[in-house]
Write a structure and sequence with these properties.
Layout lengths: L1 E19 L5 E20 L4 E5 L13 H13 L7 E6 L10 H17 L5 H9 L5 H6 L3 E5 L3 E4 L7 E6 L6 H6 L18 H8 L7 H7 L2 H11 L4 E4 L6 E4 L3 H14 L4 E8 L6 E2 L1
Parallel strand pairs: 3-4
Antiparallel strand pairs: 1-2, 1-11, 2-4, 2-5, 2-10, 5-6, 7-9, 7-10, 8-9
Helix pairs in contact: 1-2
Length: 294
């Protein structure tokens, strides 16, 4: 048996830091969407376990100890024992930059949990997989859902949103990895106001209008650590984005556009002037990525 799944980029359209727990974890409120573009994961029968890497950012994961995909595999084995012992070959196509604020590792881990559960025939519903995934990181449960949602708490309290229209979006990363703990460490205030009520929207203009009343509280501390983020945001604005903002803890920024053609034109202009940057026009999606037999 051979199974494949997408591991889409996660974009925090808005992210408010509203407090901090006693154990040090920050409390957040965030509106999250997932894009058509992302990593891909494949699992298949094998005589022994293996993980191979491909894609433009594979080299950045070589020697990662331990890779989140392997941690997901091993965590399933600890929870389900003999049913999950069968060897498996895993291939990760790494298309997203690493440490970039778009949930690449978490999305990879979520895809691994989903695929391997099916590969081994594990009887685990979405709630149990989410609880297991939380042990790998606060973003993994939302990446398992892979649909527009509001996340609260440390990211584990999820509220699915009504289906949003596909939003043309341009992702821009200036090639500067940012460690999430460092960004939170530079945050000056941790008790910020909550997100404004979200009433949905029928198009990118409506969503951008709501976003102007929201923010990403991690953008300012990230800018202090990586000023290149400011250049990425300026370029997105110069190319006609309805709104430009940083995603997550950075350094990836996004711009919303009225059409995919406008996003593609902006991609070409920014990429031409900034060789070596990650620049990708895509669109958001509503449903979770489907599993597929090959």
């Amino acid at each position: 048996m051979r199974l494949e799944a997408a591991a889409p980029a996660k974009v925090n359209l808005a992210l408010h830091v509203t407090g901090r727990r006693g154990d040090g974890y920050h409390l957040i409120e965030t509106l999250v969407v997932f894009t058509r573009y992302g990593d891909r994961l494949r699992v298949e029968e094998a005589e022994r376990d293996s993980l191979t890497l491909g894609g433009p950012f594979a080299a950045l994961l070589a020697g990662a100890d331990p890779n989140l995909v392997l941690r997901a595999r091993d965590l399933l084995r600890r929870h389900f024992g003999a049913v999950a012992e069968r060897p498996v070959a895993i291939h990760l196509e790494k298309n997203l930059p690493v440490a970039a604020g778009i949930g690449g590792g978490s999305s990879d881990a979520a895809a691994a949990l989903t695929l391997l559960s099916r590969f081994w025939g594990i009887d685990a519903d979405s709630r149990r997989l989410a609880a297991i995934g939380l042990q790998l990181g606060a973003d993994v449960p939302m990446c398992l859902a892979a649909r527009p949602l509001l996340a609260r708490g440390i990211g584990e309290r999820l509220e699915p949103l009504p289906v949003l229209p596909p939003l043309p979006i341009l992702l821009v990363n200036p090639g500067v990895p940012l460690a999430t703990p460092a960004v939170f460490g530079a945050l000056l205030r941790r008790d910020n106001p909550a997100l404004p009520p979200f009433g949905g929207g029928s198009d990118a203009d409506a969503i951008a209008g709501w976003l102007r009343a929201a923010r990403n509280d991690l953008e300012a501390p990230a800018l202090s650590l990586a000023p290149e983020i400011g250049r990425a945001l300026a370029l997105l604005n110069n190319e006609g984005a309805l709104i430009a903002r940083m995603s997550g803890s950075g350094a990836t920024c996004f711009g919303l556009f009225r059409s995919e053609a406008e996003a593609a034109r902006a991609e070409e202009a920014i990429a031409r002037g900034n060789p070596g940057w990650f620049v990708r026009a895509t669109a958001t999606m509503a449903p979770a990525p489907e599993l597929g037999h090959v």
